[in-house]
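S1.2 Input.
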Amino acid sequence: MATTTTPPPPKTAAQPIRRPRTGGPLPVRFYRSAIGKKWVMAITGIVLMLFVLVHLIGNIKLFLSKEEINLYGEALRDMPGHLLPRTWLLWGIRIGLTAAFVFHIHAAYGLTVINHKARPVKYQSKRDYIAADFASRTMRWTGIIVLLFLLFHLADLTWGPANSEFVRGDAYNNLVYSLQRPIVAILYGVSMIALAFHLYHGSWSLFQSMGLNNPRYNKARRGFAIGFAVLIGAGNLMFPIAVQAGWVGLECPHHFPVTAVCTKAALK
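S1.3 Output.
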């Protein structure tokens, strides 16, 4: 009896492996990548570095007089003169800075998640720990300290509920009243030291994040990072030290207008 054989099933062509498609426009897809997050970290970091520098320069007017720094505050609210309604440009800058903060924090968190997934091992060798300097190891914690201080700083000197003597527009006396409290002066000082360490590592690494790293320029990068961090940290530490030492004191508190020169008549 003849046996019948079943022919083998036809061979199917192997399907090529395709990368999964991710939706969204190009900027969104770029931001989802580690490179995109590093670029966002670098760009928002530059924006925030410029902000802390300008903020320091403006606050130095504290050492001139009450009317100088209060007039500076009024000038910020009046920008750009009669071209826009009052405070519109200032609020636009505030919204832009808030967006920079949000993206900076979100990108940092996203990079942390990506790094943890790429390194599933939960231990760190002693050699790796020694290789990373203190500023880089504490980057997350200094960032958290600065963020918490920023929230208190806004409640203290911008919104007012954290300052019982707060007077809207009187930046000079508001700051003096705040820093006369020893606990606030200590909090301010610790936060500025944390900010200096954060700025040091951030200004050092932002060039690498943008692909502008070159060993020939490492010495200049290091010098810039140290110089900028010391400038901002030491500059901001002057304010609590000056108030606590009595070098800067109250000038005509609760006297209106807040931009007027403090005179003997105003003190009566």
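S1.4 Remarks. Residues 61 and 69 are 5 Å apart (CA to CA).
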